[in-house]
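From the methods appendix. Each design record in this collection lists the tokenized structure first, followed by the designed amino acid sequence. Records were kept in a plain field format so they could be parsed without special tools. The example shown here is representative of the layout used throughout.

RECORD:
FOLD TOKENS (129 positions):
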């Protein structure tokens, strides 16, 4: 994730705090990132040190990975196979309960990641002060 930054690129951020520049950089990076499975999510957590922070905060960031994996696989089936499994003649039904379960798992994952980012941000500010 680390890369060399040139002075001209830094000049664009004159007047901004280091924390703001880092946040903008992370936002840009995350918004360009795709996750095809929970291994990709886990890799992202490792790359950003959020898994280590989660362990220190006693948060199980991967508690619902099995549900997220089901959701991602179903999304792939919908997108790449028009929701018709190979060898089948018609689309699979999807239950309201499955969608609600996946939505809850995804929301809880995002809330956990955002709370870890907030903890890290506060820790960065405290160490900078």
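DESIGN:
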């Amino acid at each position: 994730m680390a890369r060399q930054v040139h002075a001209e690129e830094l000049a664009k951020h004159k007047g901004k705090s280091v924390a703001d520049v880092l946040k903008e950089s992370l936002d840009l990076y995350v918004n360009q990132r795709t996750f095809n499975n929970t291994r990709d999510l886990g890799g992202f957590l490792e790359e950003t040190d959020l898994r280590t922070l989660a362990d220190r905060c006693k948060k199980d960031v991967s508690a619902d990975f099995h549900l997220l994996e089901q959701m991602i696989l179903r999304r792939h089936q919908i997108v790449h196979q028009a929701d018709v499994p190979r060898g089948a003649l018609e689309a699979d039904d999807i239950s309201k309960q499955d969608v609600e379960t996946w939505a809850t798992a995804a929301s809880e994952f995002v809330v956990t990641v955002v709370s870890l980012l907030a903890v890290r941000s506060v820790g960065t500010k405290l160490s900078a002060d």
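APPENDIX NOTE: The chain has a mean pLDDT of 83.
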